[in-house]
Amino acid sequence: MNFGFDALNGSHVSEWMALRMEGVRLFPMGFFWTEEEAAELTEELAKEHLDSGAMRGVFADGQLVGFCGVRGFQRQRTRHRRVLGPFFVTEKMQGSGAAQCMMAGVIAEARVAGITQLELYVDTLNHRAIRFYENHGFERCGLHPNEMQIDGVAYDSYLYRLQLESFNAAPR
Average pLDDT, stretch 116-143? Predict the structure, then answer.
């Protein structure tokens, strides 16, 4: 199977909205939206979001099979960082190499842009995703207690980072 990686835009809106709903339904701890909230997103607002440049996709033989949010920062002191998430590959393509292609694309894109640190949050119970991120060099560096509540149950997340370049730490 041939995989490709690219930034998403408004032309991908239908495929992206369908994948997003699948992710919210099957993996609720990986998304901040409920199914009801996700269903409220209009195609017009979804196109605007995709056209903002904040979403990347992985394609299998030309069909969108996964996506990753990529949020950067504008302020001088934080523009060296990007936050990833949500990171999702459709269930039928998990284990196929699509996620590896997407992560490799996100990392390569960050390096070209001079980004030195990628960050993400992952639910503490999502062991498969944790292994995936750690296998790509991400290191656990924090805990976000009670990051999300689903049906009155609190879920914690780990903060992970991937240091793409060394940096000079400030004296303490």
Answer: 97
